[in-house]
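Researcher: I'm comparing several assemblies side by side, and this is the next one on my list. It has 221 residues spread over two chains. Same procedure as the others: predict the full complex and return the structure.
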Amino acid sequence: DTGVSQNPRHKITKRGQNVTFRCDPISEHNRLYWYRQTLGQGPEFLTYFQNEAQLEKSRLLSDRFSAERPKGSFSTLEIQRTEQGDSAMYLCASSLGTQYFGPGTRLLVL
Amino acid sequence: AQRVTQPEKLLSVFKGAPVELKCNYSYSGSPELFWYVQYSRQRLQLLLRHISRESIKGFTADLNKGETSFHLKKPFAQEEDSAMYYCALIAASGSARQLTFGSGTQLTVLP
């Protein structure tokens, strides 16, 4: 499968714990996006990388969230001190023009 | 800031009937408009974009700048069209070209 992959697909954690998600984009894609989707809503933009540079962050991305793309390939999204309101589907997309989405990581914070 | 509105959360039609999924947007510039679709247990995927002016799986969408709408239409719905449909916009002004999505319409095509 040469599409965007995300791991893990599901994560259950207790409030206050840290979690990290990984996204592997389509190999030649230099643009990478993170979105968050809550129940009944469309995906909402969190942050954008061009190669290894994080060029834009949404105001949705609180101080507890950090994203990296160290070598311009895979990316990680870390949430520190998780809260119940962080429960959502976290989607990654990569692009040269059209955005191709991964299957998402579903996070449940208890 | 830009906004995309999909007024119908749920839409049911019978097989063979015409279907129209509504999308309205607010943005002061010239946006790029898209329809994404998510079939059951599959990932979000692009259905069509306004700049291509194409028909995909029998679906078409026309950008109406006067009404700020980008409704998705198909003359004869099929059961395999049952899915969640999201209208989305890219603002011309942004360098990130991130998508702004509507809240989606769940289409069910009844046999």
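Model: For your comparison table: The first strand of chain A starts at residue 5 and ends at 7.
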